[in-house]
């Protein structure tokens, strides 16, 4: 349930936040130029109803449509919401912000489904005609639906919500909203409430009364300020105490409320403080009929006061100070009593990052159960990287599965994807919710050391499970690596010549056709096959299985090294993989690499039998 709300909130936020500048512009025009504004100007004040009625809903609907179906969805969303606006009387009706959050994504979904239906059935030469007319016709239909159905329904829903808020205010119950708002902020659930309910109702109230208290329920920086002040003055932990002043500046002046969430998470009982602080502030604002002209985003004191109506700046500031004072008074004794126990600040920050990732639908390093190493072909470099990392990790985290694949086939259940930097965009497109670790090479990269450290120290062992890839040894086909496939003591040549030599050796031994060699060179142009520690493993691109007769590996030794960019490879191992038959010997190579003595000897030895023994 929490994850679903987080995703829903993230989706709403993604529609509203890119357009928050337009909301602020509307708020400034309202605060400054209306009859009771700072500098009344009837001509300039006439701008604000058109911004509210047309600009804001169209921007939100277009953004929602684009999230689903890119540019075509954006146009569809804009067309559809105009029907809703017209259906309620334009500037005479209620703002269609909630309708925009529905119609925009729905319009994007409609055109996306149409495009999927037409895929492969588009008559040649009619592509532009069909693309343009489909948006026009479907957009018109949705605009008509919006005019007769969606607009009036949204008006009814908004009227009910507004009446509910009025009921809470009239019965002095609105302050109790803080009981839900403050924990929701820490759990990253606030977007679903703030952008889905508070903002549309706030806009409606601002149109009628010139201001709205709904803008003040979540953005008040006072409750967080009180918590941070209490930690600064009374925390016994030096790291926490020293970090609080900087956090105060970022939170209070910068409006980044996330900065105080770890201080709550390290001692969850402290959540009582911002709840009570916000309750008191909302009570004060309710009693004195306070509100803001527009949304205060980000929630800094600067944005908060800039949206205060003329003559109410002091009252708005007093509400912030009340929230901070109450929060401080409640948090202080809790922090004093819990100084001897509780979670560290660093652990709380890690917990927050996990929760934040979950709120975005993303995975987290600390909860990872499956790591996928991916290269262009999924054949050699990623296989060796996965094996090496698995061997390193299994002693401390046997519950984590480490596998490899091609970058275009990363599975949906992947928690962490490890790819070379040049393949990052392709990996992100294939696995958008996975944590992406970009590296220079698969065998010796600082990013892998950081990942290992986080996995081994950031989360305790969850199970005593044995790695899914069992430790039982399987016999290696003796024909995969043969003595004739090992050539030693070669003079240095260019990278292309070394790759060609490896491909020619694979061809001579009957593993592949000669057409495999240019594919190996093409693969090197896409991304380097140098994987670190003096080792390169050239192989073909992903579409070459038709010319691979059987799995084979060859090894050519260049004691003086081959230049692979800024690195030198003394061992060039050519691979022709059919299925996964070559993986076992790659695992053997990785095991040999764990011992640097063996690796260094392999770069200079003239003993083929010794190499065969190490890799068999």
TrEMBL record:
- Pfam family of the protein (one): PTS_EIIA_2
Subcellular location(s): the record lists: Cell inner membrane
List, for all copies, the residue spans of the domain called PTS EIIB type-2.
369-460
| Annotated EC | 2.7.1.197
Chief subcellular location: membrane
Identify a single GO molecular function assigned to this protein: protein-N(PI)-phosphohistidine-mannitol phosphotransferase system transmembrane transporter activity
Record PROSITE patterns: PTS_EIIA_TYPE_2 (PS51094), PTS_EIIA_TYPE_2_HIS (PS00372), PTS_EIIB_TYPE_2 (PS51099), PTS_EIIC_TYPE_2 (PS51104)
Q: Which GO terms describe its cellular component?
A: plasma membrane
What is the enzyme's main class? transferase
| Listed Gene3D superfamilies | 3.40.50.2300, Mannitol-specific EII, Chain A
Q: Which GO terms describe its biological process?
A: phosphoenolpyruvate-dependent sugar phosphotransferase system
Enzymatic reactions: D-mannitol(out) + N(pros)-phospho-L-histidyl-[protein] = D-mannitol 1-phosphate(in) + L-histidyl-[protein]
The membrane topology of this protein is: Multi-pass membrane protein
Secretion signal: which residues? Answer: none
Checking InterPro entries in the record gives: PTrfase/Anion_transptr, PTS_EIIA_type-2_dom, PTS_EIIB-like_sf, PTS_EIIB_2, PTS_EIIB_2/3, PTS_EIIB_mannitol, PTS_EIIC, PTS_EIIC_2
Ranges where the PTS EIIA type-2 domain occurs: 479-616
By its UniProt entry, which CDD domains does this protein fall under? PTS_IIA_fru (cd00211), PTS_IIB_mannitol (cd05567)
Query: Which controlled-vocabulary keywords does the entry list?
Result: Cell inner membrane, Cell membrane, Kinase, Membrane, Phosphoprotein, Phosphotransferase system, Sugar transport, Transferase, Transmembrane, Transmembrane helix, Transport
Q: Residues in domain PTS EIIC type-2?
A: 8-344
Q: Where are the transmembrane segments?
A: 12-35, 47-65, 72-89, 132-150, 156-181, 244-265, 271-292, 313-335
Q: What does this protein do?
A: The phosphoenolpyruvate-dependent sugar phosphotransferase system (sugar PTS), a major carbohydrate active transport system, catalyzes the phosphorylation of incoming sugar substrates concomitantly with their translocation across the cell membrane. The enzyme II CmtAB PTS system is involved in D-mannitol transport.
- Quaternary structure per UniProt? Homodimer.
Per its record, how is this protein called by name?
A: Mannitol-specific phosphotransferase enzyme IIA component
Q: What is the lineage of its organism?
A: Bacteria, Bacillati, Bacillota, Erysipelotrichia, Erysipelotrichales
């Amino acid at each position: 349930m929490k994850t679903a709300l987080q995703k829903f909130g993230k989706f709403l936020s993604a529609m509203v936040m890119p357009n928050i500048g337009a909301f602020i512009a509307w708020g400034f025009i309202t605060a400054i130029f209306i009859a009771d504004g700072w500098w009344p100007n009837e001509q300039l004040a006439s701008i604000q109803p058109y911004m509210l009625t047309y600009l804001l809903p169209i921007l939100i609907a277009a953004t929602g449509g684009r999230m689903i179906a890119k540019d075509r969805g954006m146009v569809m969303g804009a067309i559809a919401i105009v029907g809703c606006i017209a259906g309620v009387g334009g500037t005479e009706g209620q703002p269609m912000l909630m309708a925009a959050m529905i119609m925009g994504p729905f319009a994007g979904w409609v055109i996306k489904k149409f495009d999927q239906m037409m895929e492969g059935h588009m008559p040649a030469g009619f592509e532009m005609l069909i693309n343009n007319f489909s948006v026009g016709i479907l957009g018109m239909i949705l605009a008509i639906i919006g005019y007769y159905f969606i607009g009036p329904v949204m008006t009814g829903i908004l009227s009910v919500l507004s009446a509910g808020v009025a009921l809470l205010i009239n019965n002095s119950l609105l302050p109790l909203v803080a009981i839900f708002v403050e924990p929701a902020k820490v759990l990253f659930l606030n977007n679903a409430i703030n952008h889905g309910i508070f903002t549309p109702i706030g806009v409606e109230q601002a149109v009628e009364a010139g201001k709205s208290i709904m803008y003040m329920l979540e953005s008040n920086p006072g409750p967080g300020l009180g918590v941070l002040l209490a930690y600064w003055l009374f925390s016994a932990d030096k790291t926490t105490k020293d970090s609080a002043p900087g956090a105060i500046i970022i939170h209070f002046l910068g409006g980044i409320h996330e900065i105080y969430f770890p201080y709550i998470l390290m001692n969850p009982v402290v959540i009582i403080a911002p709840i009570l602080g916000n309750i008191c502030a909302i009570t004060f604002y309710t009693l004195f009929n306070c509100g803001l002209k527009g949304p205060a985003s980000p929630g800094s004191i600067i944005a908060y006061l800039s949206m205060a109506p003329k003559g109410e700046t002091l009252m708005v500031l007093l509400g912030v100070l009340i929230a901070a004072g109450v929060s401080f008074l409640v948090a202080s004794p809790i922090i004093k009593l819990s100084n001897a126990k509780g979670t560290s600040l660093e652990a709380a920050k890690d917990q927050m990052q996990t929760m934040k990732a979950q709120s975005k639908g993303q995975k987290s390093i600390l909860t990872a159960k499956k790591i996928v190493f991916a290269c262009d072909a999924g054949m050699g470099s990623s296989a060796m990287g996965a094996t090496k990392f698995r061997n390193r990790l299994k002693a401390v985290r046997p519950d984590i599965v480490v596998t490899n694949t091609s970058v275009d086939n990363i599975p949906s259940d992947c928690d962490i994807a490890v790819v070379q930097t040049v393949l990052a965009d392709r990996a992100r497109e294939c696995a958008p919710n996975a944590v992406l670790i970009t590296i220079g090479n698969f065998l010796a990269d600082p990013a892998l050391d950081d990942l290992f450290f986080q996995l081994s120290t950031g989360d305790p062992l969850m199970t005593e499970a044995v790695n899914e890839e069992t430790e039982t040894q399987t016999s290696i086909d003796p024909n995969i690596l043969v003595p004739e496939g090992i050539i030693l003591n070669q003079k240095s040549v260019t990278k292309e010549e070394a790759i060609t030599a490896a491909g020619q050796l694979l061809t001579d031994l009957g593993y592949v056709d000669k057409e495999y060699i240019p594919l190996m060179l093409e693969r090197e142009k896409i991304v380097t096959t140098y994987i670190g520690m003096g080792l390169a493993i050239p192989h073909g691109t992903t579409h070459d299985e038709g010319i691979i007769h059987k799995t084979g590996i060859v090894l050519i030794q260049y004691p003086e090294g081959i230049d692979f960019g800024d690195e030198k490879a003394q061992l060039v191992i050519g691979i022709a993989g059919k299925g996964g038959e070559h993986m076992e010997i790659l695992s053997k190579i990785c095991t040999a690499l764990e011992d640097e003595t063996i690796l260094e000897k392999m770069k200079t030895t003239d003993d083929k039998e010794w190499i065969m023994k190490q890799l068999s």
